[in-house]
Design goal:
There is one protein chain. The chain has a single domain (18-105), classed as DnaA, N-terminal domain (GMP Synthetase, Chain A, domain 3, 2-Layer Sandwich). It has 106 residues and is an alpha+beta fold. It has helices at residues 18-28, 30-55, 74-82, 84-95; strands spanning 57-63, 66-71, 102-105. It is elongated. 55% of the residues lie in helices and 16% in strands. The longest helix has 26 residues, at 30-55. Helix 1 (18-28) crosses helix 2 (30-55) and helix 2 (30-55) packs across helix 4 (84-95). Strands 1-2-3 form a 3-stranded mixed sheet.
Length: 106
């Protein structure tokens, strides 16, 4: 049996946090820039609506400053139409540069 050569000890590298990895990937390519916008909208949506209301919705897409949101029932869709302006103003406050002019509940 061969004797194994001793190698110098290399300490383990520190693993970067997922936030820093995603932000570097998103900033490196314009295609991923859209992903960053969607991620910001998703986070702001959950913070704005809370657990219960965000649980009955699903963001479908964001296109031309219009946010498309799928709702679980027509009753919820009706409720969201009544508070659309309030949701938009709260989202604008959280998102800063990202514009949302209309929310389409489908």
């Amino acid at each position: 049996m061969k004797k194994r050569l001793d190698h110098a000890y290399n300490p383990p590298r520190k693993i970067p946090k997922i936030d820093s990895v995603l932000s570097s990937v998103v900033s490196s390519s314009p295609e991923f820039g859209k992903l960053g916008v969607i991620m910001a909208i998703l986070n702001a949506w959950k913070e704005t609506l809370g657990e219960k209301l965000s649980g009955v919705t699903k963001i479908i897409k964001y296109e031309n400053s219009v946010l498309y949101v799928k709702v679980t029932s027509s009753a919820w869709r009706n409720e969201f139409y009544h508070i659309e302006d309030e949701i938009k103003s709260n989202l604008r406050a959280r998102l800063g540069k990202i514009k949302i002019t209309k929310i389409m509940f489908v």
